[in-house]
Design a protein that fits this description.
Length: about 100
């Protein structure tokens, strides 16, 4: 019974979170400039933060740990600039890194 209540509560919270922007900004109104700005700059900022966090423990001069990272980053960058598909580039870089770590 507790699980059902938890699921119902999460569904209600999700519904109101998704309803929020429509209630705040109204129907047919222009989106505020600050929301457009945040929507434009936040994704690259988060990606940059994730890259820095991911690379913080890589030892540059140890080939065993730095080579798979360099290959995965290179593949991710090439695929992203070529296909402009976030999911494809991130998944392929992650899978490449994991395969290189497990097999090497």
């Amino acid at each position: 019974m507790d699980k059902i209540l938890a699921i119902m509560l999460m569904a209600i919270v999700t519904y109101f979170i998704r309803l929020g922007p429509f209630m705040l900004f109204g129907k047919g109104n222009n989106t505020p400039k600050w929301v457009v700005y945040v929507g434009r700059v936040l994704p690259p900022a988060v990606m940059g933060m994730l890259i820095v966090y991911s690379l913080k423990s890589v030892e540059l001069f140890k080939v065993n740990s730095s080579f798979p990272v360099a290959v995965a980053i290179g593949l991710t960058a090439i695929l992203h600039f070529w296909k402009r598909n976030n999911l494809l580039s991130i998944l392929s870089g992650t899978i490449t890194y994991m395969l290189m770590i497990q097999m090497g």
